[in-house]
Amino acid sequence: MVSATSPTAPGLSVFFPAYNDSGTIASLVIAARSSAQKLTTDFEILVVNDGSADSTATIADELAKTYPEVRVIHHPANRGYGGALRTGFSESRKDLIFYTDGDAQYDPTEMEALWPKMTPSVDVVNGYKISRSDPMHRIIIGRVYHHTVKILFGLKVRDVDCDFRLIRRTVFDRISLEHNSGVICLELMKKLTDAGCHIEEVPVHHYNRTYGKSQFFNFSRLWHTARDVFKLWMKLVVVGTQGKTGTT
């Protein structure tokens, strides 16, 4: 990967899907901006406010007023995690897209560790958690889910659900994402794999949630996730369809 001072350094879109993340989104954007400046002179930062009920929208708009590189996309109503990711991918304008969550369980400055791995032959640099900083029941559920979907979908990556990724925008000319739920991460990794994308992996830190609460770990959500995983397995593995190209 060329240095940031080189005129050939690729452009970088950084985006955060944010839902009720008013306690963390400002610090994440500021940290991401500091790191992006080290990597390239051509970058933008997007906040996808997914119908937040707290002050996330107001804070994001203030960040956009303060920093010219920041843009905000507001969903009038909550579309779900997958819906926020699909918007982020479709609205990103630069050659490379980095995203991570707005809840600060990952440090956006660690995108600097992914950047050197994005060589011309690589399509995706996927983070994987060094260790998971969550309550034990979430760790157990996460491990069961991870090993189950790796077997069901034939995936080789170390961490299917590590939402810390650097992706070439051109891969979305080859795959289409459809889900609005959290199963979109599984959909993304399966379709990237089936499209023959070259994936590199880098270890990253995972931190305790300091603000808000997880949207995924409750019985209702687990049931819906299991249902969505089954439907996705039927479509992508049993039937083997991929859908049309594009992100919307």
Description:
A 7-stranded mixed β-sheet has the order 3-2-1-4-6-5-7, sandwiched between helices. It has helices spanning 25-39, 56-66, 81-91, 111-114, 136-153, 184-194, 219-239, and strands at 12-18, 43-50, 70-75, 96-100, 124-129, 164-168, 199-204. The chain has 7 helices and 7 strands, in the order E-H-E-H-E-H-E-H-E-H-E-H-E-H. The chain has one domain: Spore Coat Polysaccharide Biosynthesis Protein SpsA, Chain A, CATH 3.90.550.10. It has 248 residues and is an alpha/beta fold. Residues 242-248 have low confidence and may be disordered. The longest helix has 21 residues, at 219-239. Helix 1 links the parallel strand 1 (12-18) and strand 2.
**Proportion of helical residues:** 25-40%
Superfamily (CATH H level) name? Spore Coat Polysaccharide Biosynthesis Protein SpsA, Chain A
The number of strands is 7
The overall pLDDT, averaged over residues, is 89
CATH architectural category = Alpha-Beta Complex
Structural class: alpha/beta
Shape: globular
Radius of gyration: 17 Å
Order of helices and strands: EHEHEHEHEHEHEH
CATH class equals Alpha Beta
Strand content: 15-25%
